[in-house]
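User: Hello! I'm new to structural biology and keep hearing that structure can be predicted from sequence alone. Could you demonstrate with DH200=94 genomic scaffold, scaffold_1353? Please show me the input and the output so I can see what each looks like.

Assistant: Of course. The first part below is the input, the amino acid sequence of DH200=94 genomic scaffold, scaffold_1353. The second part is the output, the predicted structure written as tokens.
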Amino acid sequence: MACEIGNRTVLKFDTEDGVAVALARYIADLSERFIKEKGSFNVVLSGGSLIDTMRYLARAPYKESVDWPKWSIFWLDERVVPLDSKDSNYRLAWDGLLKYVTSY
């Protein structure tokens, strides 16, 4: 459901799954737009629940439609731990998203 607050549109979802689908669609659309305009897409990831909420990007139709090799991924708040540590945001991103799309 969308509502207008001032000059902004606020989207409200009944479930986390609804948020995840909308986020995947939004990111895929942004990725396509910026790759067409600039030739690449830069994204900054943080830890927490964001990666899990992005999970639909690793599924059809987004997995196949996103031009993954043109993405540059940066970490906002990576901890000073080995990449394979359970406390690493990189590992969180790898386990939850990146390992499913790296063949592209």
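User: So the tokens describe the shape?

Assistant: Right, they're a compact way of writing down the 3D structure. Reading them back into a model, for example: The chain is about 40% helix and 15% strand.
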